[in-house]
Amino acid sequence: MSEPALRKEAARERQPESALQQREWQFRRLLERLPAGAYTCDTEGLITYYNPHAVQIWGRAPQLNDPVDRFCGSFKLFAVDGSPIAHSACWMALALQTGEDYNGQEIIIERPDGQRITALAHASPIRDDSGKLLAAVNVLVDISDRKRAEDALKEADRSKNEFLATLAHELRNPLAPIRNAVEVLLLSGPHPEMQGMLDVIERQTRQMTRLIDELLDLARISSNKLELCKDRIELAEILHTAAETSRPLIEACGQEFVVTFPPKPIALDGDLTRLAQVISNLLNNAAKYTVREGRIWLWAERQGSEAVITVRDTGMGIPAEMLPRIFDMFTQVDRSLNRSQGGLGIGLTLARRLVELHDGTITAHSDGPGEGSEFVVRLPAVGEPAAALRPPGRDRFAALPALSLRILVVDDNQDSAESLGTLLKLMGNDIRTAHDGLEAVAAAAEFRPEVVLLDIGLPKMDGYEAARAIREQPWGKGMVLIAATGWGQEGDRRLSQEAGFDHHLVKPVDLAALVQLLEKAAADRSA
Ligand code: ADP
């Protein structure tokens, strides 16, 4: 009702006589102007009063003292999860039954026209001086707009994650052939001037791959699609792998790097690659945010039931007010800094999520600008480490002995197939390439390769079908089939195994990993 209309109506009303009546009249006016639904029920649950806003929320005006409308003026009520709630279980009814307050409880009210309102209910009992329950009041605040805005935000966040995942996935594909081509050129002993340029391309594509992988990982984690390959591992392995990954950057930045391994083995259950990625990320940051001649320490120890890894640097430090925020997505202390290092501000977000997936914590400490930084990762340790540790991964493949395997490389991206083919040829293998599933099966029948590196997403016939077709043939039973796909989740690995693949590599294919598989194939052949 408009202001003048309300005034007119008030003037029409009989002027209250006693002070008590006047107070009651004031309270009524107050309730009528309240931008929230308010109503009262007696101890039987019969509605004794409601204000105009309650009618707006319910979408109807119930009869006072009518048993049909016990506890609530709306016929249909739902919980937040959408399940129906009986009137006798609504917040007003509970306040009357238990004599307790229920504040800010979410409830969904369906109006007779079918429209649903999300409201916060604040139900409280009313007692007399002796404490006897007389009635209860419920105040309903319509939060439907806020809910809609929240849902829209969630949806926008979901589409953003999906977009980032697709973007990263698509950007990854062209990188593999570029990296292969550079490797080929480097192996061919280029002119010294060219060598420098090729090093630039190699470094920059590696950096780009790292950024894209971070994006992809983050998008996967945000949509709960990142799976860990957990194993019983040793803490020293994590340190070793991370230190080896980050050492070139630290050396290029001219800093002193001190690694201290724990005196005794410490075992934990975790994904070695992912945990090494976390620590390497912290080391790379330490290198990025520390001047030349600075120092970086990496050490690990057992503290009670925890395996604790610490990365400390003598670098630029972190202001106290930024410490709680640096793990948030896209947060950077000084955006103008280090742009040449190409950070997206998601490395620490990813590190925290990966550590949390291992039931661990990560914290940052710094005495302020110029005072250096310290990052501490705490993970649950387990009893004793496994007796045998996995052999350390090999990252140089160029110096390997020639394998002389017959290998069929199948990829619909011609550049990918040709560049990888050339690289494998330079290593002394006999290579054929194919670019769709049908061509792959035909080439396998004719060329009889010992190893087939088969992309999954192929035209005409996908990689799974092609693998099945090859396995069905007498000549295809003993071939080593390696799947190369953009997706490395448990489900994808299972699918490729079911199709008859022996191994599963995630694209862009890590050459060291591929070479390890090829070496094994060559060794098995000799045996
Ligand atoms: P990026 O390094 O890509 O910007 P991160 O998420 O890895 O993103 O780090 C977020 C921010 O935290 C960095 O931009 C930097 O401001 C700060 N930071 C991280 N590590 C260090 C460190 N060792 N010393 C100083 N500042 C750091």
Please provide a written account of the structure.
Helix 5 (144-187) packs antiparallel against helix 6 (192-222) and helix 11 runs parallel beside helix 12 (463-472). Residues 385-400 have low confidence and may be disordered. The protein has helices spanning 3-12, 19-33, 52-58, 91-98, 144-187, 192-222, 235-252, 272-288, 347-357, 414-426, 437-447, 463-472, 490-498, 511-526; strands at residues 37-42, 47-50, 76-78, 84-85, 102-110, 116-127, 133-142, 231-234, 256-260, 267-270, 295-303, 306-313, 361-365, 373-380, 406-410, 430-434, 451-455, 480-485, 503-506. The protein folds into three domains: 34-142, Beta-Lactamase (2-Layer Sandwich); 154-226 and 393-527, Response regulator (Rossmann fold), CATH 3.40.50.2300; 229-386, 2-Layer Sandwich (Heat Shock Protein 90), CATH 3.30.565.10. The strands form four sheets. The protein has a seven-stranded antiparallel beta sheet, with helices on both faces. Strands 9-11-12-14-13 form a five-stranded mixed beta sheet. Strands 16-15-17-18-19 form a five-stranded parallel beta sheet, with helices on both faces. The chain has 527 residues and is α/β, with parallel strands linked by helices. Bound molecules: adenosine-5'-diphosphate. Adenosine-5'-diphosphate (ADP) binds at residues 285-286, 289, 313, 315-316, 318, 326, 331-333, 343-349, 373.
